[in-house]
Amino acid sequence: MDSDYKHGSQDFTIDDINFGSLPKLIADTQRDLNLHWTPIIDPAIQGNDSHYNIFTDGYHQNVFVKWPKDIPLAERQNPTNVYTDRDIMYGRVWPDGPAAYPDYLKNVTQNWWVKNFEHLYRDLGWRFDGLWIVS
């Protein structure tokens, strides 16, 4: 399923207004029609929404790709209204705001990533059968 199900294209969310009944639809069609569901996840985590706990948790755990130390702050061209105290490198892609990217070479990032999939699966009720991770 493409990213339209997300709230503002934010990973590990479900748009309550347009897709609030999605977990029930998934469960019903898995049971009754043997359909298989695969969410698309784009590892771009919106970094300027104070209500987006996925970013906040990742920020506190220090999981995002950082600017190289040899690039001065004045040359880092980060967007406005983002945290810059941890040298996070931001870009733009699907979310409505600037995006931070997980640094998968860190064990803490791998654990954070898995925890967020567990949140989507258990807490939000999307019993997905596979994952499509865009890279």
Keywords:
single chain, 135 residues, mainly alpha, three-stranded antiparallel beta sheet, two-stranded parallel ribbon, 31% helix, elongated
Q: How many extended strands?
A: 5
Number of domains: 1
Radius of gyration, in Å, reads 16 Å
- Which sequence of SSEs, written as H and E, runs from N to C? HHEEHEEHE
Give the distance, in angstroms, between the N- and C-terminal Cα atoms: 16 Å
Q: Label the overall shape.
A: elongated
Question: Mean pLDDT across all residues, rounded?
Answer: 90
Percentage of β-strand residues: 5-15%
Q: Helical stretch count?
A: 4
Largest sheet: 3 strands, antiparallel
Strand arrangement across the biggest beta sheet: 2-4-3
Low-confidence stretches: none
Structural class: mainly alpha
Describe the fold and architecture.
The protein is 31% helix and 7% strand. By secondary structure, it is mainly α. The protein has one domain (3-106). Helix 3 runs antiparallel to helix 4. The model has no long low-confidence stretch (mean pLDDT 90).
Break the fold down into its secondary structure elements and pairings.
Elements: H1 16-19, H2 22-33, E1 40-41, E2 45-46, H3 53-61, E3 90-91, E4 99-100, H4 107-123, E5 132-133
Parallel strand pairs: 1-5
Antiparallel strand pairs: 2-4, 3-4
Helix pairs in contact: 3-4
